[in-house]
Amino acid sequence: MPIATRKRKADSTTASADATSEPQRKLTKVSKALQKDSISQEQAALPATPQTLTSDKGMDSDDDFNSVASSMDLGEEMSSSVDFGAGESDVDIDDDYQDDGAFDATAKDLAPKRKHFEVEFKVYSPQDIQSQQDTQIAEVANLLEQPSEATAILLRHTRWNKERLIEQYMDNQEQMLDKAGLGQEINQNPPRVVVKNGFTCDICCEDGPGLETFAMNCNHRFCTDCYRQYLTQKIKDEGEAARIKCPGDGCRKIIDAKSLDLLVPNELTDRYHQLLMRTYVDDKESLKWCPAPNCVYAVECGVKKRDLNKIVPTVHCECKQSFCFGCTLPDHQPCPCVLVKRWIKKCEDDSETANWISANTKECPKCNSTIEKNGGCNHMTCRKCKNEFCWMCMGLWSEHGTSWYNCNRFEERSGTDARDAQAKSRQSLERYLHYYNRYANHEQSARLDKDIFHKTERKMTLLQSTSGMSWIEVQFMEAASQALQQCRQTLKWTYAFAYYLARNNQTEIFEDNQKDLEMAVENLSEMFEKPTDQLAGLKVEMMDKTTYCMRRRVILLDDTAKNLKEETWKFNVELR
Amino acid sequence: MTTPLPKRIIKETERLQSEPVPGISAVPHDDNARYFDVNVEGPGGSCYEGGVFSLELFLPDDYPMCPPRIRFLTRIYHPNIDRLGRICLDVLKNNWSPALQIRTILLSIQALLGAPNPEDPLNEAVAKQWKENQAEAIKTAREWTEKFAQKK
Ligand SMILES: [Zn+2]
Ligand SMILES: [Zn+2]
Ligand SMILES: [Zn+2]
Ligand SMILES: [Zn+2]
Ligand SMILES: [Zn+2]
Ligand SMILES: [Zn+2]
């Protein structure tokens, strides 16, 4: 096992570098990518599969990625310099390293390198987003010499495209103000509530003395009660904020924050500002809300819609949720968004055919006794005949480590037996089931892995008191469990990806990577099924296997992402 | 109806009686002041001329913050009115303003009869016919008007 020992050496470098860069990086990802030297060591150490060579080349040609990154910053829309420009993010990265006391000078000297599957992004709190808006409003207000309430309306009108706003404003101020629903003289007549003699409200028909009224400078005057009721309905029932018009018939004047504050109770202004924040994020292509329930953070990423066939932009929220910036589904690397959408639809359509596959029980292929799966591990041993087999393909487990055995690859049958239509459709169903089976299996296994980890964790906690192991010492279990979750998530999507992949020279490398990751995952998963009292002694081994899993995952993702970017994958469907 | 009728509805109803809009009538039910029987005459010069169309109109609790609910009871061949008599009209949806009234809405409906808009159809089949063979569509509208919309 010389490979294993050398491997461990490389692991420790990676692991320690990872550990130092991991803690509280507030906004980002980039950090992880810098262990250039440890990676080349690792490449030397790993079994020489071709992808190590290609990915080595990849590390040096990061330029193409940077070009993606810079086109993000200077996209057509010219996302303004006020908001998170490129310069600012560089500063952030430097700060990150400085905060990181453990980083030595050599690491710092290295330019931050991103892996092919990583994208640059930032996470913002609601306060960050508010101040972003405020900064932009203040800047533009100053430039246009307009009050900030009016500027806010103008910016929202142009969906926060500062350049376009300024250009159009300079071009034809009157028209711009009118289009945005502002009208002239916004500088005069600050909004106020007045009592007018002989006034009848057109909405409620009240005309009593002392009736309080309000009108914006469009002069559509109504009593404050009606105005309040109108605004309440818009905000509360209709969730409107940025584009609430004057209640006057046919009037396009937009209500501003100051008028609103004057008319509605505080609880409603809070809601109003929340909604404004929503539209701010919704209006900007580079911002998205984290999809996790109750999460208040938003993520900024420069990857544009049109880039989504070349990159799968997974981002990581402060709340630990990893999601795709393109479609906001949970992380689905390496599978591009379009294929994910297609796959999910296909699985829904074919759910009945596929359902029986993901069942929890199967028969032992040797003695036919029923076997129930209760852990994530796919290495099954029949209680009765001791037959060891693979849950996914039902093949002998002993053959899974060898180079010729392909649990993950679907073998197309030779053309002869697929001549008639029926045979063809049967084969296409078989092909689909092959990939679906594995996709569904990793999904299910991830759940089972988690269950078993929680059970084990409880036992470990008990064990702690008897064995004298401290809490910190059992953390390796947690790390292993998380790695399993992450790797199975990736594996799951490799099968959807593979389903749409047309064979070419690259696919073999992909399948090797997939197989390697799968084996690494199963090896780690298997450890969780060991009796609890043995686990303490397996700490080092488990940590090794965890690191190895994560590394195989990075290799697989980097290779698929690089080929996606370079458009070397051939798909059997249109990427549209 | 336990809640008293808002002043706004009382005033509107009074005015509908005292200054009726020519070609339009709206009479509230005795037992439900929010429910109106409406008659609208087809505008002169349109393919609905000579017809009298009856509609039902209901003022929901949040009227006038929300628009009234209106539906044709008389069958009508029109690209913006479907088989259930529902009407596709901007002022009854997004462009509703609480400053609008029953009378203004009924006038808009009458105007819609005078100017069918097949580009924003509610009734796809009728709209298609209207675009492809307008003469034929107008003929059908006339026939329907004669058949279904005569004064009783
Ligand atoms: Zn009023
Ligand atoms: Zn107005
Ligand atoms: Zn989140
Ligand atoms: Zn996606
Ligand atoms: Zn057996
Ligand atoms: Zn297998």
Commentary on this structure:
The complex is a heterodimer of chains A (576) and B (152). With 576 residues, chain A is mainly alpha-helical. Among the domains of chain A are: 161-283, Herpes Virus-1, CATH 3.30.40; 364-411, no CATH class; 433-565, Up-down Bundle (Four Helix Bundle (Hemerythrin (Met), subunit A)). Helix content of chain A is 52%, strand content 7%. Chain A is built from 20 helices and 14 strands. In chain A, strands 1-6-5 form a three-stranded antiparallel sheet. In chain A, helix 1 (2-21) runs antiparallel to helix 2. Chain A is elongated and about 100 Å long. With 152 residues, chain B is an alpha+beta fold. Chain B has a single domain, classed as Ubiquitin Conjugating Enzyme (Roll), CATH 3.10.110.10. Helix content of chain B is 32%, strand content 15%. Chain B has helices at residues 7-18, 102-114, 124-132, 134-148, and strands at residues 24-28, 35-41, 52-58, 69-72. A four-stranded antiparallel sheet of chain B has the order 1-2-3-4. In chain B, a hairpin with a 6-residue loop joins strand 1 and strand 2. In chain B, helix 3 (124-132) packs across helix 4. The longest helix of chain B has 15 residues, at 134-148. The model of chain B has no long low-confidence stretch (mean pLDDT 92). The chains are: A mainly alpha (576), B alpha+beta (152). Chains A and B meet through helix 11 of A and helix 1 of B. The structure holds zinc ion (ZN) (6 copies). One zinc ion binds next to loops of chain A. Chain A: Its EC number is 2.3.2.31. Chain A: Residues 12-21 have a biased composition (Low complexity). Chain A: InterPro entries: Ariadne, ARIH1-like_UBL, E3_UB_ligase_RBR, IBR_dom, TRIAD_supradom, Znf_C3HC4_RING-type, Znf_RING, Znf_RING/FYVE/PHD.
